[in-house]
TrEMBL record:
Stored InterPro entries: CT_A_B, Cyclophilin-like_dom_sf, PxpC
Phylogenetic lineage: Bacteria, Pseudomonadati, Pseudomonadota, Gammaproteobacteria, Pseudomonadales
Annotated SMART domains: AHS2
UniProt domain Carboxyltransferase: residue ranges: 25-304
One MF annotation (Gene Ontology) recorded for this entry: ATP binding
Cited Gene3D superfamilies: Cyclophilin-like
Species: Pseudomonas hamedanensis
Protein name: Biotin-dependent carboxyltransferase family protein
Keywords: ATP-binding, Hydrolase, Nucleotide-binding
Amino acid sequence: MSRLTIEASTPLCLLQDAGRFGVRHLGVTQGGAADWCSMSWANWLLGNGLDAAVVEITLGGFAVTAEEDCLLALAGADLGAQIDGQPLAPWRSFALAKGQTLRLTQPLLGARAYLAAPGGFAAPQVLGSRATVVREELGGLDGMGSPLGKGATLGYGGEGLAAREVPLALRPDFTRDTPLHLVLGAQIGQFSGQSLFDVFNSAWTLDSRADRMGIRLLGKTLHYQGLPMISEGIPSGALQVPPDGQPIVLLNDRQTIGGYPRLGALTPLALARLAQCLPGAKVRLRPVVQEVAHREHVAYLQRFEDR
């Protein structure tokens, strides 16, 4: 098995895959890559299954040294990646010679980069996934939800394809002000008319109070006019509105049930885009019906099969 030695890391650098499913009735959240699109492209570059385990590097501060010659792949945010001081752009596979160090420093464009290795990084499966959820102490290299730490080794055992890049036309443009699609939810009709106007006609600022559990949006105060709710299951991307009227987008590490009213849920593609936005960024929401969101999702997945 080939190995990389971690030379630098932060608590925000985690081993992730597509997530943990079929266990929410036990109170276990899904976890998984926040930007599943970039994770999938990183794996595609090496011919891996799209759900193979990768390293999710948030905001930089991560470095690995190769213990033997290898082929790796990097997709997602531009975090100032360098190989022994030489710049490396994302969205491509690349060779890392024995003794060379790959270092990701700080955000230049986007927030999360994904590092893939042939066959995916090795780690024990916990409830069907290697995804790290720190709060629940599940997944990761040790199976106990620990972030990646300095001195640890990342093992992998596959063989990569020849070096290649994601075509420019298929790379997400993190500079574009792309509206985030929201599938309307069951409580949408119980908000005031003014609130419904404000949701879709105002810019929302991403609060610094954000993590893999959720991101608070700052903007117009929204007013719920319905009756108190009984807690119910919460889907990925749920846009819930607590009593202060400032909505929260719930992400991969969210709780499994909750009692705040919800305007709806962001689509998976919108969640991937949101995962690349830094605190202080402004976003807009756009309503979409479920059938359209499903067609867009299927069409995006088809991109991987056509190449």
